[in-house]
Amino acid sequence: MENKMRFSPNKWKVFGALIGAIGGYFYWSEIGCLTGTCPLKSQWQTMVPYGAILGFTISGIITDILKKK
To answer: How far is CA 55 from CA 5, 6, 25, 37, 60, in A?
Structure first.
């Protein structure tokens, strides 16, 4: 028997969170707040988790829509 690596059922949500975290970092580095007065966009430590949560949520919504079809 061949031992195949299986992914969890939430692989697309985890992948979406990873892409969101990377997107949050690039958003901070390219667009972020220059003055440092913006509480959300001024530090990468806040933008990366925010992007991950956003990516996780969006990929979950897309996954649910595709499952219904």
So the answer is: 24, 22, 13, 25, 8
- Residue ranges covered by each domain of the chain: 42-69
pTM of the predicted structure, to 2 decimals: 0.78
Q: Which residues contact 41 (CB under 8 A, 6 or more apart)?
A: 27, 28, 31, 32, 33, 47
The tens digit of pLDDT for each residue in 17-65 reads: 999 999 999 998 888 887 778 877 788 898 999 999 999 999 999 988 8
